[in-house]
């Protein structure tokens, strides 16, 4: 399962997709999105790298990705942003997007 990151991991050299979940603890929709992402992280363990990013603790990373809405999901592959999803995204849509990159 993903982890709360304190520094940007060297994901540029990774070949598997990376899913960043930008959230805030005070955000209602984030409380809906987080369990979806956690369940998907378990289901796709080893296939996708999932990183949970608290925007209040990691403003530098939120700024790098121009996060202005939470939750925002960023999917990267080979160091390139493939998809940006703002608001709550359902599990089926998210899994489909990620499986297409494996």
Structure overview:
The structure is a single chain. Helices cover 30% and strands 26% of the residues. It is an alpha/beta fold and 102 residues long. The protein has one domain: Glutaredoxin. A five-stranded mixed sheet has the order 1-3-2-4-5. The chain is globular and about 30 Å long.
Strand portion, in percent?
A: 25-35%
N/C terminus separation: 17 Å
- Count of spatially separate domains: 1
CATH architecture: 3-Layer(aba) Sandwich
List the helices and strands and how they pair.
Elements lengths: L2 E2 L13 E6 L4 H16 L5 E6 L4 H6 L7 E6 L2 E7 L4 H9 L3
Parallel strand pairs: 1-3, 2-3
Antiparallel strand pairs: 2-4, 4-5
List key phrases describing it.
single chain, alpha/beta, Glutaredoxin, 102 residues, five-stranded mixed β-sheet
Summarize this structure briefly.
This protein has 102 residues and is α/β, with parallel strands linked by helices. Helix content is 30%, strand content 26%.
